[in-house]
Design a protein that fits this description.
The protein is α/β, with parallel strands linked by helices. Helices cover 30% and strands 22% of the residues. It contains seven helices and twelve strands. The longest helix has 13 residues. It starts with a helix and ends in a 7-residue tail after the last strand. 28% of the residues are buried.
Length: 223
């Protein structure tokens, strides 16, 4: 009897009408800044340089030479590349000097010790960036796994200036994130940092201590 009474009350209760979903696109459209590409570039740089990210303006032709110059100045002995990437192949075609290129071509179990203790720096491409939150978007793939941006002490990122979005909503919609995501989509705002109980800031505790962005402009467009 008690069971029937309970079920009866549940069945007779009025069904609540679900509230309409907010119009997310309309809200972002109303808040979006009317910025051109140059303004988005400036806003991204300012936000990321404020947390010690290093920026270098490069072109489609000179970026390997800029990277090699930075590597020599910082005393980088080796650089980790993804397997068979266009930017990796472009770098291999240059005179490397003392820099050794290492390719991520094995399962992590086969070379974990060297990855964690014997790799100075890595180079990955960025999918895009978001000016509003000062972050670069990485889209890990089997060719460029997530560990490439997490383990080495220095992380070089090749970012196309034309791929900088005003806000995250613009990035998500323009790039069609709803059609599929990787296991990890990464938003990186600067080098890894943490603070102890005395509020002493330390870099590199949980990832790269240096983040170097090679901001690649169309030929002649670098600011």
């Amino acid at each position: 009897m008690a069971r029937n009474n309970i079920l009866g009350r549940l069945r007779s209760a009025p069904v609540a009408t679900l509230p309409s979903l907010p119009d997310v696109k309309a809200w972002f459209d109303s808040q979006r800044r009317n910025e051109d590409l140059a303004q988005r570039v400036l806003r991204l740089r300012a936000a990321m340089q404020a947390v010690k990210t290093e920026f270098h303006d490069v072109t489609p032709t000179d970026w390997p030479d800029v990277l090699l110059g930075i590597a020599a100045a910082k005393g980088i002995g080796n650089l980790l590349l993804g397997s068979n990437t266009p930017h990796g192949n472009a770098l291999k075609a240059r005179a490397l000097g003392a820099l050794q290129l290492v390719h991520y071509e094995q399962p992590i179990e086969a070379w974990r010790d060297r990855l964690f203790d014997g790799i100075d720096a890595s180079l990955t491409s960025a999918r895009s960036a978001v000016a509003e939150i000062g972050s670069i978007i990485l889209w890990p793939t089997p060719s460029e796994p997530r560990l490439m941006s997490l383990v080495p002490h220095i992380h070089f990122v090749l970012l196309e200036a034309s791929s900088i979005h005003s806000d995250l909503h613009s990035a998500i919609t323009a790039e069609g994130w709803s059609s599929g995501l990787p296991t990890n989509a990464l938003l990186i705002g600067g080098p890894s940092k943490t603070a102890d109980i005395q509020q002493t800031l330390a870099y590199g505790a949980h990832g790269p201590k240096e983040l170097i962005v090679l901001l690649r402009h169309a030929s002649g467009a670098a600011s």
